[in-house]
Amino acid sequence: MANLDLIPDPQTLVIQGALFGAAAVIVKNKFVKPYLALREKKDGLTSGSKANAEATLKACDEKTKQIETKLVQAFTKAQTIRSEAKQSAQEEQRAIVNAAEAEAKAKVDSISAEILSQYKKELEKLPETVKKLTDEFYNLSVN
pLDDT for 46-89, tens place per residue? Predict the structure, then answer.
């Protein structure tokens, strides 16, 4: 039968331990340290970018509130200006309409007076015209 030796050889253990240690140092220096440094750098950039983004969003929110406040103020001011302009225009319109009514009334009164005057003149001429027509009719009927 074969002899199974379960006791490790100290020289083999030392060599395997040294190889493992060397491999661990090499892997740590060549792979783990650069990976951790890169990861830390990316985390820093991401965290910095995140903080930057949050600060920018906060600034944008503040600007939005300021803009909304200014818009409300501008809207209120525009309403005030619009109502003042409307009131002024209505007053001006009333003044123009009143002036036009007065002018129209004066013209109508003037024309009415002229018509009345001409009517009276024609009424004064009427008896004379009737007399002429009567004489003419009489002359035609007699002749």
Answer: 776 777 888 889 999 999 999 999 999 999 999 999 999 999 99
Place of tokens 């491999």: 23
> In whole angstroms, what separates CA 72 from the centre of its chain?
11
CA–CA separation, 10 and 12 (whole Å): 5
pLDDT tens, 12-52?
Answer: 889 999 999 999 999 999 999 999 998 888 877 777 677 78
Name the token pair of 74: 């501008």
- Across 11-25, b (16+ Cβ under 10 Å) vs e yields eeeeeeeeeeeeeee
The two tokens of residue 29 are: 């220096």
Candidates 73, 53, 55; CA nearest to 65 is 73
